[in-house]
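Cholesterol transport system auxiliary component: structure, please.
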Amino acid sequence: MRAIKTLPALATVALLAGCVKFGSEPPPSLLVLSSDAAVKVGATQSSATSPTITVRTPEVAQEIAVQRVPVRSSDTSIAYVKNAQWVEPPARLFARLLGDTIGARTGRLVLSGSQGTVNPGETLSGTLRNFTIDAPTMEAVVTYDASLIRAKTDTVETRRFEARVPVTAIDNNSAGIALNQAANQVAVEVADWIGK
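Here you go.
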C-alpha cells in the first residue's frame, strides 16, 4: 500500500525535474587559444644549459576575469558575445600562449609560477588590459602591459603591447578567431622584446 502512494509523488518529481534548470545552458562549443609557435615535441631543456623565464598569469579587470567574451560598444558600456565562452579564464589561456611563444622564439626554458621558486631566471608579469571586441571599429583588441625583471637584476622594464584584428561579425566563431590572432601577435612581440 505504501509503494502505491509513493508512485504518484515520484512521477510528479520526475516531471518537475524536466522543468527545473540550475544555471544556464552551456554554449555549443568553448573557445581556446592556440599558439602559432611552440617548442618541438620531444625537445629537452634544462635550467643547467638554458636561460629560464618565469611567466606569471597576468592580472585582469573584472570584465575579462570571466570566461565570456566582452564587447565594448562605448567607453562606458560593455556587453558579452552571445554563446561565446572560453574554456577557462582568458588570463590563464594567454599566459600559456605567452609561454609557448617565448619558449619557441627565444630558446628559454619557460617556468610556471610554482616552478619559478627554484630558479626563476627572468620574470614576466603584467596586466591584460583588453581581451575584447571593439564594436565601433569591428576589431578584436588585445592589450598587455608587460613587466620584465631581467636575470640577476632588480630593474623592472615595462612595455605596452597591443594588437587589433578586424572581425567580420560579432559572434562566437569570428570573435574566437580574431582574438586568437591578436593574442598571437602580442605574444610574438613580447618574445622579441625579451630577446634571445
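Notes: The longest strand covers residues 122-134.
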